Amino acid sequence: MERDIYDEDQDAFRDVVKEFVARYATNEKREQWDADGEIDRPTMLAAGEAGLIGLSVPEELGGAGMLQDYRFRAVVTEETIRAGAGSLAGALGIQDDLAVPYLAHFGTPEQQQKWLPRMATGEVLGALAMTEPGAGSDLRGARTTAKKVDGGYLVNGAKTFISSGKTADLVVTFVKTGEGDKANDFSLILLENGMAGFDHGKKLNKMGFHGHDTAELSFDDVFVPDENLIGGEAGHGFVQLMRNLPLERLSVGVAAAAASQAALEWTLEYTTSREAFGQPIVDFQNTRFRLADVATTVDVLWAYIDRAMLLYKEARLTPEEAAKVKFWSTEREWEILDTCVQLHGGYGYITEYPIARAFLDARVHRIYAGTNEIMREIVARQVTGRR
Ligand SMILES: Cc1cc2nc3c(=O)[nH]c(=O)nc-3n(C[C@H](O)[C@H](O)[C@H](O)COP(=O)(O)OP(=O)(O)OC[C@H]3O[C@@H](n4cnc5c(N)ncnc54)[C@H](O)[C@@H]3O)c2cc1C
Q1: CA-CA distance, 223 to 152, in Å (whole number)?
Q2: Which of 203, 304, 327, 333 is at a distance of 20 to 30 A from 123, taking alpha carbons?
Q3: Position 387 pLDDT exceeds 90
Q4: Cβ(373) to ligand 1 under 6 A?
Q5: Where does a domain end: 176, 208, 235?
Q6: Dist. CA 167–CA 126, nearest whole Å
Q7: How far from chain centre, in Å, is Cα 224?
């Protein structure tokens, strides 16, 4: 089904992204990222130069000023995933969907001036650290503290599973500034690479997204100046997270649809060229019917995701709608990728093939940005009116 969400601006931007991807997301580069467990900095700087990151940074601070218009970001995700570079898609997404928005939405003018221009160029890479070894879904259980001291805060604790955690220069960190576990006991504070007592810990070995770093972080009496408290006032961390989580969930929905679309394209190509019993496997009725199912689901996915992007653009995508988008799209993605792996036969299991890598990458889509069980909880509360 033809999509009509994009206009000539996104079409022109798609050409830029395609050019970037052809140049930087080569098989050789991807293998290097996978071996290193991270995207190299020159590639991230080149992405900044080409305008692939910093899309949500205000124009006067060097970005594209697309804080509410997710369509440009979607184009980046679609084209990087189509090129089989899921890890690059992930690294670009962390910068623009998880790090920049906290400063663009809630940062003081000084914080925005200080960080956003360099985040738009890729000179400063960001991350968002909420999850702790003992608290993931239940964020009120977070134990990383920021105790007020003269001129700033002393931060102690640990975070885990932090995407871009090893490579980030600036980490938006969820900390407890109050004594209890009420919403206003939490804040977001900027931890800078190189601060004494801030350790980026070890890179975690993952099932997928091998070329994008995920790390443990630890904080041992890290002195963080007052000026690094996002928004300049303690107690707003929970509200700030809640405000941005729909974007994070929409971004996962877009990635799920993009991977499903790419899987369909790869599988069509593969099944047309592969023969068994004297005919291309695309001509077996099972293959044809499976592909018909996949193509239809991809259409429905895009119709839903595109609608969500437009609602987001008008600041009307509610947390419940974003939760529906996240769990439903990632579950369709999982079914589609499994079907497409099957249609590739043994080659579907070999990571040289993009379908195998996309399958491994997709598994975490049902876990991060809030597990799909938590997404259903959010929706169920609204549907039933009961907590
Ligand atoms: C590759 C990767 C990258 C990540 N990147 C980041 C990042 O950049 N920043 C960040 O802060 N975090 C990140 N995370 C963490 C991720 O968001 C958490 O893993 C996720 O929210 C789940 O938390 P948990 O692992 O503690 O699981 P738990 O909360 O312990 O959940 C375990 C299981 O219990 C279920 N469960 C929990 N509570 C309920 C409930 N009320 N009802 C029903 N079921 C429930 C969960 O759904 C899950 O199935 C990342 C994780 C991974 C794997």
Answers
A1: 7
A2: 203
A3: no
A4: yes
A5: 235
A6: 8
A7: 26
Residue pointed to by tokens 């995407």: 163
User: How many Å apart are CA 159 and CA 141, to the nearest integer?
Assistant: 12
- Choosing from 371, 375, 387 the residue with most ligand 1 atoms within 8 A of its CB, the one to mutate for a pocket test is 371
Q: How far apart are CA 20 and CA 52, in angstroms?
A: 9
Domain CATH number, residue 96: 1.10.540.10
Angle between helices 109-121 and 41-49 (to 10 degrees): 110
DSSP code at position 386? -
Distance CA 321, CA 314 (A): 14
> One-letter amino acid identity for 86?
G
List the helix and strand counts (H, then E) for the chain: 12, 9
What's the pLDDT score for residue 134?
Answer: 95
Task: Give yes or no: residues 17 and 111 share one domain.
Answer: yes
Compute the C-alpha angle 5/6/7, nearest 5°: 130
Q: How close is the Cα of 256 to the center of ligand 1, in Å?
A: 18
Segment 345-381, tens digit of pLDDT: 999 999 999 999 999 999 999 999 999 999 999 999 9
Confidence bin at 202 (pLDDT 50/70/90): confident
